[in-house]
Amino acid sequence: MTTIGTFTRDGDGFTGTIATLALKAKVAIRPIAKTVENAPDFRIYASGVEIGAAWSKMSEADKPYLSIKLDDPCFASSIYCRLVGKSGDDHVLVWSR
């Protein structure tokens, strides 16, 4: 897995940066009210533009994480990744093909 972002908890959401070869941005992950069961729990914004969504999940080891789908016109296709806790309020965004 490759780390493509670093985040810290910011109230009910997260703030941080994502850096790939095609995208370098300050990002906010903000909670949203669910309207249906399968709707995302969070929306992801870069410079005020929505670039993705996230769903709250629990690992087999009972550790919470966010399952994230990012999309941007500069990507060949959507990127699927996970925001996982590292230590304290620090989190990393990891991606694997």
What would the keywords be for this entry?
single chain; about 100 residues; mainly beta; about 0% helix
Explained architecture:
This protein has 97 residues and is mainly β. It has one domain. It contains no helices and eight strands. Strands 1-2-3-4-5-6-7-8 form an eight-stranded antiparallel beta barrel. Strand 4 and strand 5 form a beta hairpin. It starts with a strand and ends with a strand. The mean pLDDT is 92.
**Strand line-up across the major sheet:** 1-2-3-4-5-6-7-8
Q: What's the helical proportion of residues?
A: under 10%
Cα-atom radius of gyration: 13 Å
Mean pLDDT: 92
Show unreliable segments.
Answer: none
Mass-distribution shape: globular
Q: Approximately what portion of the residues adopt beta-strand conformation? A: over 45%
CA(first)-CA(last) distance: 8 Å
Number of helices: 0
- Domain unit count: 1
Blueprint (SSEs and pairs):
Blueprint: E1 2-10, E2 13-19, E3 24-31, E4 42-46, E5 49-58, E6 64-70, E7 79-87, E8 90-95
Antiparallel strand pairs: 1-2, 1-8, 2-3, 3-4, 4-5, 5-6, 6-7, 7-8
Quick gist of this model?
With 97 residues, this protein is mostly beta strands. The chain has one domain (2-95).
